[in-house]
Specification:
Layout: H1 9-20, H2 27-41, H3 51-64, H4 71-80, H5 89-92, H6 101-114, H7 119-130, H8 142-152, H9 159-172, H10 178-193, H11 208-231
Helix pairs in contact: 1-2, 1-4, 3-4, 3-8, 4-7, 4-8, 6-7, 10-11
Amino acid sequence: MGVHDAPQWLSHAFGRSCLAAGATAGQDEIDAIAGDLLDRWTEPERHFHNVRHLTDVLRRVEELAEETHEPDLVRLAAWYHGAVFDSAEGTTYAGRGGEDELASAALAREQLTSLGVPAASADRVAYLVTALRRHNPDPDDFDCAVLCDADLAVLAAEPQRYKAYLEDVRAEYAHLPVEAFVRARIRILERLTERPRLFVSPLGAAWEEPARQNTAAELHRLRKELARLEAQRPVPEAGGTTDGEPVHRADGPDA
């Protein structure tokens, strides 16, 4: 998807949020920043973290907006939360899934202040973006809770949409070997399922049960797949390795 395929209302929505946040720049300057962001969100290597994801997060923010204190800052944080993205093997599955929250937050601070948004508001947007690194917001920070819940809402998607989400994520990291991807995805899901709550905002709590069902089913499937991959490895002589890596046998129970 290219920039010109993005819904026209998106750039107008960005402009409204900027003005509500105190931007003093002219419309042309605001439009230029909106165009830059859409260029980023429509980069060809993005299969999931793309404009559709951006619009989904913005839509979810609107569903939860009544719980926010500064809804336009939350909307701006949604725009920036995945603005900087890198799916390279060395950075993607260090546990951050490709989105570089720190770089995205720095971009938000730079661009918003250039538009005349007060420094305190730009800093707040940057803080909300960096909070997505852990998706574990302070429940008393309602704006942060809403943004985190909106970003994770895809986990509660109906089964066919969840399946499409998984296919898009795999396509985004197609350059990763299957086993590396499976292991990384398992780590991410295990961290999520260990949390007492996936969704922190009161309205977002309605997504908890379907999200738990989806992630539990995916984790079960991936563990079976990993066991199968491990069982297919060549067995070396005692104490040996295959291709320089330790061999791990999967003798777990049938599932």
